[in-house]
Model the fold of this input.
Amino acid sequence: MRVALLTDGIWPYVLGGMQKHSYYLCRYLAQQGVTVDLFHYNDSTYDITALEFFTPEERNNIKAHVLEFPKGKIFPGHYVYKNYIYSRLIAQVMAPTLAQYDFIYAKGFTPWYLLNQKRKGKLHCAPIGVKFHGYEMFQTSPNLKTKLQHLLLLRWPVKHISLMADVVFSYGGKITDIIRGLGVKPQRIIEMPSGVEQEWITTTIKPTEQPIQFLFLGRYERRKGIEELNAALQHLLQIQAPEFRFHFIGPIPDDKKLNAKVCIYHGEIRDRKTLLNILQQADVLVCPSWSEGMPNVILEAMANGLAVIATDTGATRLLVNEQTGHLLPNAHPQEIAKQLLQFLNTSPHLIHQKKQNALAKIKAQFMWETLITQLITKIKAQFHIT
Done:
């Protein structure tokens, strides 16, 4: 089978949860012998032509097409406009080989131009599957500005692309409800969770001791709830809660950092070994996002034996429950503070049980080595590909 994978970048050339998912998708399709034409771009100092983050065997099945993401002035709607231009560029680069694909797996806005041309009857190509991850623009917004951006700029093109696609991929949970609400028929929705690699699975879980080590992992983005998390932490400091440490990994702006001894800022970390060393010393991941898909950070934390406090958004409920952590009903500071305090007043033994349950859940249900065969089977069955 030959697949075109249209992306807005893959990890680590471009950072982000969607980019990490694209990397795994490309890698494990190649491992299964699928020929992957990868369309992506670079936003790092790595040599993107070398594809050094894939094995030689995987590279034998990957043909990379490196594009330039449109740059230019910032204006209202520039993000959507540049993504449309990028989708047109992808279509132009794909043109010579378009008829050779069995399936086109497209992330976000990347198939926009292709789908428009296909609907107008101006081109014929393989079935196109679209992945918008969390459909965050249809989830709760953290403020009025973001809500207006979603309403005025993002919702229409996302719905337009979803309805034109031959199939829409969903992580499941609340995301499937959103996709159905857009008018996509159930038979055109393929549910497929994300996962982790075997090398992310820890062999030992750190003993749970006082003080409890909390962790936030990710880049600064308004919907990630750092402002609300900061407010919750300030409340705990004011009421003199039991001793704890809170670690931040990611490029957090200086004006979003708390001047408190309990808060440790490690900055952006791209090296996997360094990241794992810090991750495995934590006890509880905190993910207070207003909107999400199925966060890689939660998957990777659970794979390393961390319990999780996370907002009930996207497909998070497939991972987090009372056995593995706690689901927040919303990202309000008082809810975050309440659950942080509850963990601080929970015995280390009970927290350790949650950590063990989290690891076991990932090993049983969310391994890429198993998920990729399920994905290939579902695509082939949906479109009768031999």
User: Anything to note?
Assistant: Residues 144-164 form the longest helix (21 residues). The chain has two domains: 2-195+367-383, 199-365. The chain has a mean pLDDT of 95. Residues 45 and 200 are 25 Å apart (CA to CA).
